[in-house]
Task: inverse folding
């Protein structure tokens, strides 16, 4: 493979730029109004599918022997395809009413760059989100998330995880890009897959500490100090969640974060815990900062120490536990 390490971007960025360029070149040939019609039909179909897929899924379940989880996914795809076909026909007729002198003049061709970039960006973002969601090479996932352009796209799609989960349900429940639960809650999520090899990821632990302290520095808070004992407790919990197939603050033995820290002989008055399951440390941190409860722990002025435990599960992602103490 060609070494792109001397460049300010990686090979994922290069591929993205090539795809966007091809879309722009095609757009220059087709013109602004046709591309706007295509983009509008795509976005309209997406919105309609999100609203109507439960109805279609119900019809599929009623007439075929298909699990609800796959019926939701199939219902969404069918709704989107039908809606886009209808919208494309309608918008195509409207675009055809525009005089040729407007549709294919020089300014229309130049302006076509905008919808071409938007259209290609949406498709690229969707594809990259799928790449980091499914069980593939951790190196490829890391390259995607750490690329300048790809990382930006992934960051913008993190807010759509809930919609993705609602649509695809059990069909994709084991491959969501970012997973967490509210701090202090008794909620429990079962994890059906168990990695064969587990490894402590000290590099990610250090990187996460740096990211946490960057956030605290921005708001004028004292930086957290790494607590080795708390880190061991955090690693133990991350490893236990992988081994016993669960994701929760309360373990199957009924022990809370405070219980585990007391067993680890950690002195504290105030304590808190954040959990995340994600393919990379950057995605885990961004997801936690986007969650009010987890963000509050990270930016809590009462905390002075933190133990971070990251256990790498290979293609299944990394299990993150943050134990905060005063």
Result:
């Amino acid at each position: 493979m060609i070494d792109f390490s001397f460049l300010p971007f990686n090979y994922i960025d290069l591929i993205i730029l090539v795809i966007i360029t091809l879309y722009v070149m095609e757009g220059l040939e087709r013109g602004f109004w046709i591309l706007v019609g295509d983009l509008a039909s795509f976005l309209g179909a997406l919105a309609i599918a999100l609203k109507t897929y439960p109805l279609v899924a119900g019809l599929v379940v009623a007439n075929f022997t298909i699990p609800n989880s796959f019926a939701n996914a199939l219902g969404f795809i069918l709704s989107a395809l039908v809606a886009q076909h209808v919208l494309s026909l309608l918008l195509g007729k409207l675009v055809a009413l525009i005089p040729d002198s407007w549709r294919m003049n020089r300014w229309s061709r130049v302006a076509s760059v905008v919808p071409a970039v938007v259209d290609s960006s949406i498709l690229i973002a969707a594809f990259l989100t799928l790449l980091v969601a499914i069980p593939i090479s951790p190196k490829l996932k890391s390259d995607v998330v750490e690329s300048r352009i790809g990382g930006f796209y992934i960051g913008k799609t993190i807010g759509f995880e809930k919609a993705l989960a609602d649509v695809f349900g059990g069909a994709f429940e084991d491959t969501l890009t970012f997973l967490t639960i509210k701090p202090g809650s008794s909620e429990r999520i079962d994890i059906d897959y168990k990695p064969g090899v587990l490894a402590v990821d000290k590099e990610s632990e250090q990187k996460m500490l740096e990211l946490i302290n960057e956030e605290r520095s921005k708001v004028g808070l004292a930086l957290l100090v790494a607590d080795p004992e708390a880190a061991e407790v955090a690693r133990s919990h991350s490893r236990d969640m992988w081994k016993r197939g669960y994701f929760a603050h309360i373990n199957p033995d009924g022990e809370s974060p405070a219980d585990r820290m007391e067993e680890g002989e950690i002195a504290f008055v105030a304590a808190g815990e954040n959990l995340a399951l994600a393919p990379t440390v950057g995605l885990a941190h961004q997801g936690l900062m986007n969650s009010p409860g987890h963000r509050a722990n990270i930016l809590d002025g009462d905390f002075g120490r933190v133990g971070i435990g990251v256990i790498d599960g290979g293609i299944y992602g990394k299990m993150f536990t943050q134990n905060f103490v005063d």
Observations:
- The radius of gyration is 24 Å.
- Residues 53 and 163 are 12 Å apart (CA to CA).
- The mean pLDDT is 84.
- The longest helix spans residues 32-63.
